[in-house]
Amino acid sequence: MHLAIKPARKTTKAAVHARSASLPHEGSHPVIAYLGDSIRTLRSWSAGAACWASGIALVDAVLAALGDLLALPQAVEALHETAACDQLLDMFLVLADAYGSFQSALITLKQSVAELQAGTRCGDGVVVAASLRAHRRTEKELSRLVATMRHPTMRPVDTMGNEVISIVAEVAAAIAEASEAIFLELVPVAQTSNKWLSRLSIRPSAKKGATETVMSALERLEKLEECIDVLETGSENVFRRLLQFRVSLLNIHSLLTL
Prior knowledge:
The protein is mainly alpha-helical. The chain has one domain. The chain has 7 helices and no strands. The protein is elongated, with a radius of gyration of 22 Å. α1 runs parallel beside α6 (about 165-200) and α4 runs parallel beside α6.
């Protein structure tokens, strides 16, 4: 699962082509229509990835719409496809694990940022060096998560013309793309902070230039801390929804095996 990170992001083609009798056409059913619109909005964000907070919020909105779909008895019935359900379970397990790890990485990153702030303020080079090492470990974890979103497990699902399975698989693919964008955008921030902070002169100095440099460092760290707070809250919501949906799929799958 450790794959090379590439700057370019590939966009998966829409998988919602085949239709079945399980639910009406997307244009005539509000739940399907809304979920389809949510997926397109999320994919549009992934292409630009302008704001992390918006990306996390859009992922959460797609999962909320997916929950509305699963509340329909017709949708539950349509998911009674054993092989496809197994694949969907694998996809959502990868996503849930990724967001669980992402939450842990954010906690570690937040702690290292706080320690960097303290070390920078008091001019403690030892504290700064230790914090930078923790920062670099977080970089590696974020890079691993980027690679995970490209893992073969996230391959297209053979929907066999089942509309509901098709759109659920499309949701998983769209979330993987958006998550890759979120993780990928955070990696350079951590790298830039490391390289930039490692060049700082942490020793106390009476020079005005040195004081301004430290102030600039603290300002950038505060902005990074604010960003982490937003991502931490958003990723927690996404993680919870992913777990809820996977539990629902497991319940459906268990009924098939009785």
